[in-house]
Amino acid sequence: MAEILSTLSLNGDQGTPTNGGARYTSIVTWEADQQQNLVTGGNTAVLECYTFTEEISSRFTILDWVVDATHNVTVRAAQGHANNGVVGAGYILDAVSVGSTTFGAMAVGLNQGTVISDISIFQAATTIGNICISSNSSSEGANAILKNLILRNLSTNTSASCVKWAAFGVECANVLVTQCGGSGFGLFSSAADSSSFKNCNAFNCNIGFDIIVPNITDVTYENCLGYDNNTDFGSGANWVGNTLTNCASGDATATGTLPQTGVTTADFENYAGGNYVPATGGKLDGTGADLSLDFTNDIAGVTRTVPWTIGAFAIPSGVTVTYALSPDSGPLPAGVTIDPATGNLVGTPTESGTFPDVIVRGTIS
User: Fold this and answer.
1) Longest CA pairwise span in the chain (Å)
2) Number of domains in the chain
3) Is 20 in the same domain as 105?
4) Which residues make Cβ contacts (< 8 Å) with residue 283, sequence separation at least 6?
5) Cα–Cα dist 302/319, whole Å
6) Other CB atoms closer than 10 Å to residue 64's CB: what's the count?
7) Residues 290, 250: one domain?
8) What is the pTM of this model?
9) CA 21 from chain center: how many Å?
10) 162: closest CA among 116, 223, 113, 218?
11) CA distance 328 to 311
12) pLDDT tens digits along 217-244
């Protein structure tokens, strides 16, 4: 079985494609060019993404490939170009305008068994029910794997979502949702049975984790964290037959086995500054279930140790995070700098003007 490796970078000049892969500057072009029957060819297809922000203005899908459980599609960050749990780092698929309806406006659609890892997907529309990543029907996205993703949806519409799934068996691990007017993680079809959410974070949403329709069963939520949402975990009859284990919430909605409720900003290193690492000795520290049979690292690449933390971040042992302006950031005004310890902007501007696209990046050392 051959891996058809393609690469994606700003200028199309990074990485070494293999087995019929190529260098690309657009994920849309890659999908249209490489789409094929992977089963007949006995292959897998991989797209490795290098650091840059790609804006899309129409629906992007990985939809019409022919795949099976062993011949599938993977979109992942190239080595050294993962988001590392830092908003604005790595490759960002930024949907600046992708339609005016919920289902026609998703950022990514998926084939069976597709793997998406270590990149970011942003949704920029502010009023309509757009989605960052979804399957629109039970025939799309079965057994997909979403891991180490950062998702942000600027829509204030309560029908918007970051993850909105209709198919069987989606697996989410170390996924960080930072904002959404609707559901951070939502299941909206009875076909979405046997899905799993492990060490995922939902912040600043209407509902962090939600089961939107009835008759969805055997869904597991383990070590998941909802905080700063209108409601952290949904409730009611739709949740019957599903399991929460070692989950945490700022409100009282984290139920199930060994929940942690009443989480506050004191349970993070620096929540206001975007540092979501659990505070040592807080409610997220050491209160998670050991899931090392499934994966061992957190979203930042830090190796988890027993006892596990709740959420997408582990507490690094002997590791520090240093913040600086990202190489692909816009400039700061004169007189303003980045606090390397917190990532906050400090100082007093000595010039006026507009300074868009400021990106702060953290480096683990």
Assistant:
1) 63
2) 2
3) yes
4) 248, 260, 262, 263, 267, 310
5) 9
6) 11
7) yes
8) 0.86
9) 26
10) 116
11) 28
12) 999 999 999 999 999 999 888 898 999 9
